[in-house]
Design a protein that fits this description.
The chain is 35% helix and 24% strand. The chain is of the alpha+beta class.
Amino acid sequence: MHIRKSEEADLARILAMVNDAAQAYSGVIPADCWHDPYMPKDELVDGVIFWMAEEEGRLLGVMGIQDRGVVALVRHAYVASAMQRKGVGTELLLRTYWSIPERQIEPSVVLADRRWMDQRAISADG
């Protein structure tokens, strides 16, 4: 896997990746906030720099970082639906920005899955 900073020519591929991967949020994001495609082009690039994970020319995932002066925000983190749960997001985030031991990677990445969302809904209902 190769990780690189995106270029202007990559925008269409990034947009397709984001909208493909965002399908996992359909039914989770409130209906009045969901639209298809989920991410229009003008919202995608508002000051965001993208890092891309590729393998043999195939885009596996993207991470969008937005510099807001005193902080840098992770604005987009998407992995191709066929590559989800295979470590692409971990490589994009942790390998791009930190040098940490292999055994520390898994516990360092916290992502909400369906079980967490279901438990949160149950807790909110009382």
